[in-house]
Design a protein that fits this description.
Elements: E1 11-17, H1 19-26, E2 32-36, H2 39-44, E3 52-59, E4 65-77, E5 86-99, H3 105-112
Parallel strand pairs: 1-3
Antiparallel strand pairs: 2-5, 3-4, 4-5
């Protein structure tokens, strides 16, 4: 069974951001994520664009993460200086989950309840 945006188990892509860009997202100043048009990102993002429902972003290689819905995926220019050419663009919704310490709250609750 393939995961679609409307399925019970939506596809979540995991992406690592530098501290700067992660903080921009947490402060709701960044709503589009750009990835280079390479074979790697084509396979992980573009080829699965109809299945990806959300993106989980890590603050560098720390345990802190946020989850944002993915509204759409397309290609186009990046507005930042020095970023030439086209990029894969993930247009993002609001933050639906923020784990500042990296703990999964559901897992912690289940563990305390002895399940």
């Amino acid at each position: 069974m393939s995961a679609t945006k409307n399925s019970v188990h939506p596809l979540v892509v995991h992406l690592v951001l530098t501290y700067h860009w992660f903080d921009e997202m947490v402060n709701l100043r960044k709503h589009v994520e750009y990835r280079a048009m390479t074979p790697h990102w084509k396979r992980l993002i573009w080829d699965r664009r109809d299945e990806i429902a959300a993106a989980r972003f890590s603050r560098g290689y720390t345990a802190e993460t946020i989850l944002r819905s993915v509204i759409g995926i397309d290609t186009g220019q990046c507005p930042y200086d020095g970023w030439e050419g086209d990029y894969y663009r993930l247009t993002l919704g609001l933050i639906t989950e923020h784990n500042p310490d990296g703990r999964n709250r559901e897992t912690e609750t289940t563990r305390r309840a002895g399940r």
